Amino acid sequence: MEQPIFTPPFESVDTGNDSRQALRKSVKMRAHLRDRGQTRFEIEVTDLSLAGFRAETSFTLWPGTVVWLTLPGLAGLEAVVAWRDKFKYGCAFAKPLHPAVFEHIIALSQR
């Protein structure tokens, strides 16, 4: 798998299993994603960190694409697609989540 390429203001997050820079929580929740000028489509968010998320969808997205993630009860969160592996995607938030928002999303996923 290729290393993600980011353009400012995005920063690379180490994706090695043992040396992740951001705490990741495993989740399983439906959400919506859209890119510029496109209609939104459903995704399954499978993990979340303050810096980004991993998701699965049958829609094709390309690394570098700016997207907006909409989770239940929250405004759209801007992110960029960092990597793609068939139907799995890793995305980095344009601005890291506030820890309270992160904990709220984790609580929602456990309902």
Question: What structural keywords apply?
Answer:
single chain; 111 residues; mainly beta; Thrombin, subunit H; six-stranded antiparallel beta barrel; globular; disordered N terminus
Question: Layout of SSEs?
Answer:
Blueprint (H helix, E strand, L loop, with lengths): L23 E12 L5 E9 L2 E5 L9 E5 L6 E9 L2 E6 L5 H11 L2
Antiparallel strand pairs: 1-2, 1-4, 2-3, 3-6, 4-5, 5-6
Walk me through this protein's architecture.
The protein has 111 residues and is mostly beta strands. The protein has one domain: predicted glycosyltransferase like domains (Thrombin, subunit H). The chain is built from one helix and six strands. A six-stranded antiparallel beta barrel has the order 1-2-3-6-5-4. Strand 5 (77-85) and strand 6 form a beta hairpin. The longest helix has 11 residues, at 99-109. Mean pLDDT is 82; it is low at 1-20.
Quickly describe the structure:
The chain has 111 residues and is mainly β.
Mean pLDDT: 82
- Determine the N-to-C terminus distance: 33 Å
Would you list the SSEs in sequence order as H and E?
A: EEEEEEH
CATH superfamily: predicted glycosyltransferase like domains
What percent of the residues sit in helical stretches (DSSP H or I)?
A: under 10%
> How is the largest sheet built, in terms of strand order?
1-2-3-6-5-4
Structural class: mainly beta
CATH topology: Thrombin, subunit H
**The CATH class:** Mainly Beta
Q: Please give the domain count.
A: 1
- Largest sheet geometry: 6 strands, antiparallel, barrel
